[in-house]
């Protein structure tokens, strides 16, 4: 039996909406539609001391008599200014969006983010000189490329009309440079951002400033991407500090399937009014819960803590979710049962699945003694919970101690927490005795316990 649990982040008003995804054929040319144009340009870089290259997409109907906002679109560690063109077909995606009336006309600049004399993706692309060049590109972008674009093309040269996004290494650059230069960029997107991404505390040290100046912050990644923890840690920090953003997770790995979908969705937001309240609806999947068993993708948690339970059980006639109140699951043609819950309050929730009247625990999630019996448990995170998370601070120790009880005429056990520095200290300590509740376990011998 395969069981999966998904926790959703969709507001009540948007509960019936399907999370947005690119439709079939979004990256294929449409016959008869107007097309934009890709041009190659060279610009002088004082930062690197050479002439550098970039590509520029101009939209259908482009005119030098109009002024346009600009999206700077960055590549990954193994690419160059042509990577998006070769693997992502951005001009086709954008042409189709223009044909559907979903974009505000904009320029898209695709530069080489490896700011060094020989900026080709050759040799050891992970070499320290090449990695350092990706960081150097911040200066090249701000002091050389952007001024050149604003001088050469009819742009709207304000932060409100300038966006920065990228994939992988370029996603890390976008978050680093965009959030680090909010006077230059109001729209920032990271697609599958790489480990070059700064820790969130450095990305957004001034939360109030970020809330005030950001028009949109987009973070997306595939659920099977090994770099997912980079995006997840950034989202968790932003969520805790109430910085509005999109955290878009979808089925996929570290590839253009995910990145093209990111561009398709992110570009539709740009240079338009943003409904901040609707941002939590922009996701397909959630984050695996902390209470999952190892390697279990579900349960998953989404921004507003709604939940979807999925169970592969084609031979079962009825499935319910008992989560304090009961929900009926609906079976599809493949035998997968699904239900969406209401928004769940933060903290630990006991639950069980009821298969044809039989309550069972979820094998994909940790179990606890609750509801008067063994049951599954799902931890719903809340804001301001970092105090309860494991952090890089001095740690005490938890010790198991056995003692003989004259009252019960038996050996019993207890756990003792000693604070950091206890072993080296000669001080005497006060003691707190911390007692459990009614769902305790009764010892029946070494290594044996049963609930009472």
UniProtKB/TrEMBL annotation:
What the entry lists under CDD domains is as follows: E_set_Esterase_N (cd02858)
What highest taxon heads this organism's lineage? Bacteria
Name by which UniProt lists this protein: Putative esterase
Is Glycosyltransferase there in the keyword field? Answer: no
Q: What are the leading ranks of the lineage?
A: Bacteria, Pseudomonadati, Bacteroidota, Cytophagia, Cytophagales
Q: Which Pfam families match?
A: Esterase
Q: Which UniProt keywords apply?
A: Plasmid
Q: Which PANTHER family match?
A: DIACYLGLYCEROL ACYLTRANSFERASE_MYCOLYLTRANSFERASE AG85A, ENTEROCHELIN ESTERASE-RELATED
Q: Region labeled Disordered — which residues?
A: 18-39
């Amino acid at each position: 039996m395969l069981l999966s649990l998904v926790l959703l982040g969709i507001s009540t008003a948007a509960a019936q909406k399907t999370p947005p995804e690119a439709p079939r054929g979004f990256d294929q040319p449409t016959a008869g539609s107007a097309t934009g144009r890709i041009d190659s340009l060279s610009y002088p870089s004082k930062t690197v001391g050479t002439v550098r290259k970039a590509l520029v997409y101009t939209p259908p109907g482009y005119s030098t008599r109009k002024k346009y906002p600009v999206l700077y679109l960055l590549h990954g560690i193994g690419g160059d200014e042509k990577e998006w063109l070769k693997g992502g077909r951005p001009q086709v995606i954008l042409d189709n969006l223009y044909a559907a009336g979903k974009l505000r006309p904009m320029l898209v600049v695709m530069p080489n983010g490896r700011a060094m004399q020989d900026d080709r993706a050759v040799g050891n692309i992970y070499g320290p000189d090449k990695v350092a060049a990706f960081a150097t590109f911040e200066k090249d972008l701000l002091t050389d490329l952007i001024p050149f674009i604003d001088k050469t093309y009819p742009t709207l040269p304000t932060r409100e009309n300038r966006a920065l996004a990228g994939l992988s290494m370029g996603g890390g650059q976008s978050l680093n440079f965009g959030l680090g230069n909010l006077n230059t960029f109001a729209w920032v997107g990271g697609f599958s951002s790489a480990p070059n991404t700064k820790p969130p505390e450095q990305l957004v040290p001034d939360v109030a400033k970020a809330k005030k100046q950001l028009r949109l912050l987009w973070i997306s990644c595939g659920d099977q991407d090994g770099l997912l923890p980079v995006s997840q840690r950034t989202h968790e920090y932003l969520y805790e500090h109430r910085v509005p953003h999109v955290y878009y997770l979808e089925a996929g790995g570290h590839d253009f399937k995910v990145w093209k979908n990111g561009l398709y969705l992110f570009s539709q937001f740009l240079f338009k009014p943003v409904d901040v309240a609707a941002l939590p609806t922009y996701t397909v999947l959630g984050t695996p819960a902390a209470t999952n068993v190892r390697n279990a993708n579900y349960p998953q948690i989404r921004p507003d803590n709604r939940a979807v339970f999925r169970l592969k059980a084609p031979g079962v006639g009825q499935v319910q979710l008992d989560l304090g109140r009961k929900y009926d699951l609906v079976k599809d043609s493949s035998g997968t049962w699904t239900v969406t819950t209401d928004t769940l309050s933060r903290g630990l929730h006991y639950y069980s699945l009821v298969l044809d009247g039989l309550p069972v625990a979820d094998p994909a999630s940790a179990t606890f003694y609750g509801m008067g019996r063994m049951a599954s448990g799902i931890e719903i995170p809340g804001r301001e919970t970092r105090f309860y998370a494991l952090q890089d601070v001095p740690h005490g120790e938890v010790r198991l101690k056995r003692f003989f009880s004259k009252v019960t005429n038996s050996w019993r056990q207890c756990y003792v927490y000693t604070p950091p520095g206890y072993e080296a200290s000669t001080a005497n300590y006060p003691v707190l005795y911390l007692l459990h509740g009614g769902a305790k376990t009764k010892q029946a011998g070494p290594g044996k316990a049963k609930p009472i």
